[in-house]
Amino acid sequence: MGKVIASAVVSLDGFVADTEDGVGALFDWYTNGPVEVYGSDPGRPFHVSQASADYINATWPNIRSCVIGRHLFDLTNGWNGVPSVGDRVFVVTHEPPTDWPFPEAPFTFVNGIENAIAQAKEHAGDHDVVVTGGNLTGQALAAGLVDEIAYNLAPVVFGRGVRFFGDYAGEHVLLDNPKVIEGDRVTHLHYRVSKG
């Protein structure tokens, strides 16, 4: 069985976006390097440092399912029907869209984080599931559904905005020591959630 990985690019003070949903300098590292890498969309290349490319190429190909919230879906228009990573997206929402122009896209609209992760894991099989940062991450962590955390730390301070763990108010969660990869304008911190 694959892993459930909570993942996002995060500011030094823990935000995945500002108060207007902007990412500012968080994503600078996606375009500042000489190595071209891709998620699921062959029309959306990233140009990153060699260290970031090695990290991406070791993790992204094993991701088969992505779990996102309705807010991110609306902000990106579901990436025009092409998953950013993996081959299927599970969108947590109480109200699926009725007029989205990509009805045949591999997007499934699910009520509740537990249902979304269960369906995403079933689809992924031996591959991994990624959960985006924000309230979903906090909910998944509180429910004990997260196996690993991929905290891609950008050297910027936002002061306020959308937190990586949303409004998480659960118990303390211990993590194992991180795997640390220093890229250009990003430090990849990859933790396992401690099981003991």
Q: Can you describe this structure in just a few lines?
A:
The protein has four helices and twelve strands, in the order E-E-E-E-H-E-H-E-E-H-E-H-E-E-E-E. It is an alpha/beta fold and 196 residues long.
Write the layout of secondary structure elements.
Elements: E1 4-10, E2 15-17, E3 35-38, E4 45-48, H1 50-59, E5 63-69, H2 70-76, E6 88-92, E7 107-110, H3 113-124, E8 128-132, H4 135-142, E9 148-153, E10 162-163, E11 179-182, E12 187-192
GO molecular function: 5-amino-6-(5-phosphoribosylamino)uracil reductase activity
Domain Bacterial bifunctional deaminase-reductase C-terminal: 113-170
InterPro entries: DHFR-like_dom_sf (IPR024072), RibDG_C (IPR002734)
Description:
- This protein has one domain (4-26, 63-192): Dihydrofolate Reductase, subunit A.
- It contains four helices and twelve strands.
- The model has no long low-confidence stretch (mean pLDDT 95).
- The protein is globular and about 40 Å long.
- By secondary structure, it is an alpha/beta fold.
- Helices cover 19% and strands 29% of the residues.
- The strands form three sheets. Strands 7-6-5-8-1-9-12-11 form an eight-stranded mixed beta sheet, sandwiched between helices. A two-stranded antiparallel ribbon has the order 2-10.
- Residues 113-170 form the Bacterial bifunctional deaminase-reductase C-terminal domain.
- It holds the Pfam family RibD_C.
- GO terms for molecular function: 5-amino-6-(5-phosphoribosylamino)uracil reductase activity.
- InterPro entries: DHFR-like_dom_sf, RibDG_C.
